[in-house]
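Here is one chain, start to finish.
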Amino acid sequence: MTPPAIHEKYRPGIALIRRISHFPPCPVGHGSHVSKAGSGGTIPSAPARYHGAPALRPEHTLAAYARAIADGADHIEPDLVPTRNGVLVARHESQITNTTDIATCPEYATRLRTQTIDGVTRTDWFTTDFTLTELRLLRAHERLPAIRPANTRHDGHFDIPTFQGIIDFVAAEAATCGRVIGLIPEIKNATHLRLLGFTPEETFLHMEGSKKPLIDVPGSCF
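Its structure:
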């Protein structure tokens, strides 16, 4: 199988993530065991890994997706939200206090604000108030430290991936493993985002039309 052109470009980054995360390059087969979300235990390999491998790495990071692929996942399910300039990035939701180190950045203190999202009022920092360049300066944190305390040792190690970066990364991993790996993206709070003037569905469809070989990309909006 001929790997896509992006493969060599991303090989150094993949090797670095594997080294930091302490796992082998690919599963031997689909008989591997996959970490059960939120538990730290294992279950027989499943076709999809929601958020990556959140029991082992902070969710929605390339390290979490890579760990899930190494454990035999056939699909990765990233949650997507837009930046201020409309770039889709992977976060559990638009508010980022619980998933990044934003609260430790005094230069962004004035961007703390209150929004009502799908009927729920939230005071937080939101991806839609930051450019991609600004978000790239943040580092991912474990979202549920009380449930997954071991993951906190990875706080600050990984950045926020873009959807395009995830597509490229998964294509490279698929080429390395010699098998198709699907992406099942979920656009979060799509109705609220459209009220703010964003068009994440159109952005997704444009990107889906230019997806890499070895990638299967359906999608959903919530």
